[in-house]
Amino acid sequence: MTHILDIAVGTFTMRPYVFAFFAVYLVAAVLHLGWKKTIWFTVCGYLVAFASEFSSINTGFPYGWYYYVDVTRDRELWIAGVPFFDSLSYVFLTYCSYATALLVLAPAKRVKGDVVLLETGRIRRSFAVLLLGSLFQVFIDIVTDPVALQGSRWFLGRIYGYREVGTHFGIPMSNYFGWWLVSALLVLVLQVIDRMGSGKERPAGVGAAPYRSLYGPFLYLCVIAFNLGVTFYIGENLMGLTGIFIFTLPVVMTLVLFRQKLDRYHKDELAAHLADYPWSPAASGSGGRGAEK
């Protein structure tokens, strides 16, 4: 019993940053989707991620042949050769990538010191969100996997490796193609779950917290900043600069596009948003130039 308790405690204390990100995800997702959909996606997303990792360490698909180093098996939770925290991270990475895609694609309205995305069910479940969200998630992995491979040089520890040295700071290209495939599947799972209970009553947990629509994108940036910070901390300056170069264009494009579309929505876009989400704070206030179109 004591050993089980030690493993449970170690699962949290050894990877506090993972569970900090996960906590932010829970707040953002519940306020956005509600408790029911968040729980469903957390469970289903974890199972998809675990299945992909279990398959890859045993068959090489979809990420290529890699292996986990089980030096922490007696200190944190492992499931069938996969660390629990690793598959769990896919869940919040998918949500923040999905939320960032919505930030790019949905019209936006200012309401009494807040910013509301005029998303609709159609936008949420569109192919554009699927494509953009999955690519946003792959871009996270382009920064996180190389530094994670150097885990022996920071507090992560050496937890995994590849059978053959890859071309991108030791990471094989098959890993990124696999991530794109699994990321697309995870976003699709989230979109399917989002169809559940799509009625006119506000789901339990959904709330109008200030700047709620920016919580997911903020988590996305926090994950990137954390991993780039660790990259520079261990002295991998070329790796860190490469990550900055990779993200400069998408981040700047997202900010510029968001600024350009803010309060420039059509009245039909506002009406469609309120038809799908009548509880939205976008129903209050005039909102700006878009309200008159």
TrEMBL record:
The record's keywords, sorted A to Z, are:
Membrane, Transmembrane, Transmembrane helix
Q: InterPro entries in the record, alphabetically?
A: CruF-like
- State which residue ranges cross the membrane: 17-35, 47-68, 88-106, 127-144, 176-193, 214-234, 240-258
Which PANTHER family does its entry note? SLL0814 PROTEIN
Which protein are we looking at? Carotenoid biosynthesis protein
